[in-house]
Amino acid sequence: RGNRDRAHHSVRADRQRNERDHRVRQSGATECAVQESVSSSGFAVPRVAIPAVLLQTGGGKRSGEIYVMDRVSQHAGPETALDMLNRPEGFFPFRPADDVNAVLLVTKARTVTLTVPRATTPEDPDRLSAARTGRLELTLADGSQLSGSATIGLPHHHARLLVYLNASPEPFFAVTTADEVHLVNRAHVLYVRPQD
């Protein structure tokens, strides 16, 4: 009987240890997910931190940092915050300013807007010279409003705001003000009022 109790205790101890190991692996998985989002195909890709203000469907704005790749294949220079949001991955890392030791993996689907300083979003002068700028006012799902301008990089005969809003399958588009770029999730826009 003494051996049976010991064996039973040993099994229980192993199960407790496995559960504890599983918890360690789960918390390690979060770290791994952040590292995977910061690396590509096993090779580390240098990242650049950009200050940002996050607005999600739960309400309340949060200041912090997002991370973009140092360089990308689709254009010269670093990845923009808009490029990062329109990548197919469903989540992105966000370091809140009020807890610099934490990294939150934020879902893009529940992100209403992500606002970054305009200086961190380089604009291609060739694209700007060929594009039209349209002023607009957005009403978001929570009733808040956002005014600014959008760079409509479509052929002149298609350069209407409606065509611009419908032309891209990408979930986010940019609304620019004097100092900031608001990256807006199309799914959280109630309506747009052209200002031109």
N-C termini distance: 88 Å
Q: Give the percentage of residues in beta strands.
A: 35-45%
Number of helices: 4
Global outline: globular
Which series of helices and strands comes N to C? HEEEEHEEEHEEHEEE
Helix share of residues?
Answer: 25-40%
Question: Going across the major beta sheet, what is the strand order?
Answer: 6-5-4-3-7-11-10
Number of strands: 12
Contiguous low-pLDDT stretches (5 residues minimum) are: 4-41
Structural class: alpha+beta
C-alpha Rg, in Å? 23 Å
The average pLDDT score comes to 76
* Biggest sheet statistics: 7 strands, antiparallel
Q: What's the helix and strand layout?
A:
Elements: H1 2-37, E1 39-40, E2 43-44, E3 47-56, E4 61-69, H2 81-85, E5 91-96, E6 104-107, E7 111-117, H3 125-130, E8 132-140, E9 145-152, H4 161-167, E10 172-176, E11 180-185, E12 189-194
Antiparallel strand pairs: 1-2, 3-4, 3-7, 4-5, 5-6, 7-11, 8-9, 8-12, 10-11
Keywords:
196 residues, alpha+beta, 3-stranded antiparallel beta sheet
Question: Could you describe the 3D structure shown?
Answer:
The chain is α+β, with helices and mostly antiparallel strands and 196 residues long. The protein contains four helices and twelve strands; from the N terminus they run H-E-E-E-E-H-E-E-E-H-E-E-H-E-E-E. The radius of gyration is 23 Å and the shape is globular. The model is unreliable at 4-41 (pLDDT under 50).
